[in-house]
Records
---
Amino acid sequence: MAATAGGNKIRNAKLVLLGDVGAGKSSLVLRFVKGQFVEFQESTIGAAFFSQTLAVNDETVKFEIWDTAGQERYHSLAPMYYRGAAAAIVVYDITNAASFTRAKKWVQELQAQGNPNTIMALAGNKADLLEARQVPAEEAKAYAQENGLFFMETSAKTAINVNDVFYEIAKKLLQGQQVQNPQGGMVLNQRPPERTVSSSSCCA
Amino acid sequence: MDPPPNPNPNATDAQPQAEAGVRLAALSLRGGRDLPPDFEIHEHHLDDDDDDDDDDEGYLTAASRGGSSTCAWKGLRDDDRDGDGDDVSPPSPSSSGYAGERGSSLDDDPDPEPAQDWPRNKKHLDEDDASSSWRKRKKHFFILSNSGKPIYSRYGDEHKLAGFSATLQAIISFVENSGDHIKFVRSGKHQIVFLVKGPIYLVCISCTEESYEGLRGQLELMYGQLLLILTKSVNRCFEKNPKFDMAPLLGGTDAVFLSLIHAFSWNPAAFLHAYTCLPLAQPTRQAASAVLQDVADSGVLFALLMCEHKVISLVGAQKATLHPDDILLLANFILSSESFRTSESFSPICLPRYNPMAFLYAYVHFFDEHTYVTLLTTRSDAFYDLKDSRSLIQNVLLKSNVLIEVQRSLHESALHVEDLPIDPSSQSASQPPQSSQDMSSQSLSSEMAIGGPAGLWHFIYKSIYLDQYVSSEFPSSISNQKQQKRLYKAYQKLYASMHDKATGPHKTQFKRDDDYVLFCWITQDFELYAAFNPLADKTQAIKMCNRVCQWVRDLENEIFVYGESALSWQYHHCWGGK
Ligand SMILES: Nc1nc2c(ncn2[C@@H]2O[C@H](COP(=O)(O)OP(=O)(O)OP(=O)(O)O)[C@@H](O)[C@H]2O)c(=O)[nH]1
Ligand SMILES: [Mg+2]
């Protein structure tokens, strides 16, 4: 899926966000893509699609982001969105222990059903709400290490570490070349080939 | 379970009766937490602010979030009427195995944790059936399971209404168990209407003087909205576990139901079972329809271009027809969920009239604040194709100035009764089809002071063949919301009485009361509902109605959508598959 354009590589990478209702998935994406934060972000329906490019050194990663809904009724549809993903960000809310438990379940599911090459990040969101913290950073960090995830505490509200998570993922993608091994089978990552061509030609 | 004393032996068709109040009291099975004892004694609220409570605050801004709290079910304990303790255990949403219509391979989800409780203050979560404010609400809607578990309540926290829910369940189940169906109970100005849909019960308690048929139709739409979100396969969860707690599956959808309930009092589509179109010049609409048709030919089941609640164009794949109720529910779902406006999205959605069992996948994209395209497909892997289709559509809309015309129409093209042509037949003969911006300029304004000619205030015209309606703007005499809602209520009543199966469909009805003269005229081709000022002369009014019909026919190319495959629908009276 990589295209070369004037020596500048553009990689398309499918990225999915998973996590409990209200953990802040949409808020993180909106912060990253639009630089915005809204206090009363509405619960996501199904899944919302965004794209955003990120330059890493002389290379460019174009993220195709699936912001999934945390609502229970959509859980059975999650594979549709995470299958073939190059990267996944599992989000929990540091002020809500139940959301951390839920995050671990998502990690398990990804390990069991997802693409083994998927780069996984664990984001402890709402890091601005320290006084309400329920999940110790050390605990999450230890869990992330055991499971080969990289971990950051983020705040969509203050923007702390938000771009960093995506940047870290982009770097890992470029190092690991996982992008070039899309899993066979399903769905959302399959693009008509012209698309890559057109994106490279417009950057030439 | 011990059946409660039979509340009403003739419940199949509970008639309004003098002793209904006594009966209602008899329904109060368990003291304080059951039917509020003073349900029948606060009628004095009705007179002044009759309408303003039917669809009040918060339906648009409600930032609703679902999720059950871990402790919310404590309230159940004292209502564990069956004496079996199952109810008390904390909810385990994950045990539902609810998987929509996806394959079994996807069933093995990890167990989700109960989500955090979000403030949903717009629906008065502090209230329950013990609060006087709750009891004074003029129109309640409840959804509950046949085991008595609350699923949805318009007011108050569902969890706190467990006892009340159990009472409703007892009433319904008792009658059901004796092989009968309870339709409604009346008590003074209160009416309790029931709708049983398999394991799901819907109840409306209202003192709004709406007809039984009208309220029942509203419950049908509530059920349709629920199916749109979950499909009918949710019934399987009840087969596996009769005590299944369904409320968490509707997490975050309060705004959807609130906005539907609001629509009951402002949107004629809710009782007419027809949709309305945005007026547009024919070439403009054709440009939009042509590109939607191309998209439909490439494997999309339905393609809809809408502006708010009005259809700009819609196209279905071969033989696929879209029921007006599905359009209403789909538009309501999309417009009441802020989520769709944030970015393009791809979500499972069920069209209950099309197929209540299965999900379709909906690609939704807003071109501007009001205008959005919805592409529906059966393929879960179609996102990128639909995204490409959307670019195609967008290019055509921009090139043909459709979006600009839409904005213009939104502000200018409404039908005003003042514009009713004096002699429409001669006018239509001499004039070519007009572009949308001309539509409001062909006016005669001498009779402005009293609305349209001969005291005509307002009308709704429904084309039976097209399943579409058009309505005029409200005149200055019906300028505030309260008056508008009152008029719609009067239309709803008229609609119900015209379609009353017992007395046969009526052809015309002329009704005079303090507020207006109402006239209804039904033929094979159309239904016309018109309101005149209360002093209007009957002969004149009938003349005006003829003129309205002629006017509508003259404008039909601009105010209606004509599909190549006319999307009319053979009317089905029950939800498919049942
Ligand atoms: N203080 C604070 N609040 C946040 C932060 N991120 C999100 N929120 C708030 O948390 C709530 C939920 O955020 P969302 O982004 O909608 O959560 P989500 O994970 O997308 O939820 P679903 O779409 O329902 O699955 C919103 O009211 C946000 O304003 C954060 O970093 N700090
Ligand atoms: Mg979200």
---
Amino acid sequence: MAHLDENPLGPHLPLDPLPGHSSMGRLERVLRRGEFAVTTELNPPDSANPEDVYERAAIFDGWVDGINAVDASGANCHMSSVGICALLTRMGYAPIMQIACRDKNRIAIQGDVLGAAAMGVCNIMCLTGDGVQAGDQPGAKPVFDLDCMSLLETVRIMRDNSKFLSGRKLTTPPKVFLGAAINPFAPPYDFRPYRLAKKIEAGAQFVQSQYCFDVPMFREYMKKVRDLGLHEKCYILVGVGPMASAKTAKWIRSNVPGIHIPDSVIARLEGAQDQKKEGKQLCIDIINEVKEIEGVSGIHVMAYRQEEYVAEMVHDSGVLKGRQPWKREPNPVDQLVAERIEAARSGQQQDQQQLAEKAAQHPH
Amino acid sequence: MADAVQKPGNAAPAKKAATGAFTPAGVSPNRRSRHKYTIRLWAVRNSRFFEWFYHRFAEVFLLLHPVWKLFGYQRVERPITFVEKHVKGFLFDCRMCGQCALSSTGMSCPMNCPKQLRNGPCGGVRANGNCEVEPDMPCVWVQAWKGSQNMAKGDAIMNVQKPVNQSLRETSSWLRVTAEAAAARETAANAGKDA
Ligand code: SF4
């Protein structure tokens, strides 16, 4: 049976745009169809080897609808999100490109958005970014020229109005599905739902939340969100992930900004024989709890350095309900590249001398 | 002086150094460790009063529009900027971005946020309501939310703010607002005449 998200004329062809969709990506299709989506995060390599990226992406094959290419998360240096997206789209993965406002000003960001869309990136996540103090280079200059809200608005204007922030026209707008992050677990708690409303107003179409370890707190948040009717305007993916041990959990709690881990979670991990296994089980339990909450459209699995467990946890929690996410997405320029290679192979050798002469005769 | 005793704060650089993480010498992202936030916090607590007061003040400024025009907005810019910078600097730790958002941010100046967010708190706010980047500073946006609750037009905090126009830095926001209001009034009057 042909996959639902497949071009009827052949799987190697790009998808047709659907009415009402802002991107041609599969993540948007899955969400708009009302299916439970699963996204995850690629641990960015500290190397210049493309194999590292492919290897890390391959573990997720057939289990996720999108892979986040993080933009120096935690303000630590890694391969850039643009670079990762270039590699992933080349291999047909569906990356969600993160853009953090910490390192780039509006000029660089708008250029990156165009570049990414040209490479075939269909999903862009707009983040503020952690402060530079959190990372390995606290002496860096924090940019924060835009904030996540104005970044969302900027990309939305580029997409919908075909314009740069300055008003200059774009000939082809970037067709992207816009995402943002939410953190319901940090003060001021009562402002958080309104902040989501603001993000939606600015252009967010889906959001991924910070790690959820405190389900009652999240329920409380979702209740407010439903009261405001926000779950109908935006797809909410809950951030989940396994904790390797009680010690890591404690370390994260005191060192990573914005992650709230209740004592009960730490107690449960501490009491377990095999903490790693318990961490995984805890994550599955949380997935099973949050998937029942009204207004939740999917999960975002962040299994830092435990990526191999993602498939297992997604399988064990049964959130996909037998659905198999599409593995490879054809890139719009695939055909062009193939033709180019073919031409290079069959064409005659370039004669440098001849080319130089030709160029000399053509002043333009 | 790499081995000088580092002050706590700034995500505790000393603690970080102890873990073996790289900590550059002589860099103190915690620029305001000796700063007291008393006045800034007091202004937020009294945001309702400041809102009222600013309205009266803006009206007076608008009444003085002919005066500004007489001298020329260009020429009064410098002295007014001087006054504005010091008054607002004292009350709100104003950073002179030139496009004041205080009435939309509960009288808590968003430019004091280390990330200069203009649209609400980041996800890193500490459980005690202090800033992620500067652990001794109450998060500007937690304060802004509190301040906006007291204000008559506190809902303005829900508006999505445009990115900062950096070329307006160190210019007077008071004069800009007045000039714009005067221009709007004139176009309205003209439209009334034409009709
Ligand atoms: S915690 Fe508050 S003050 Fe600190 S960076 Fe985040 S929003 Fe700004």
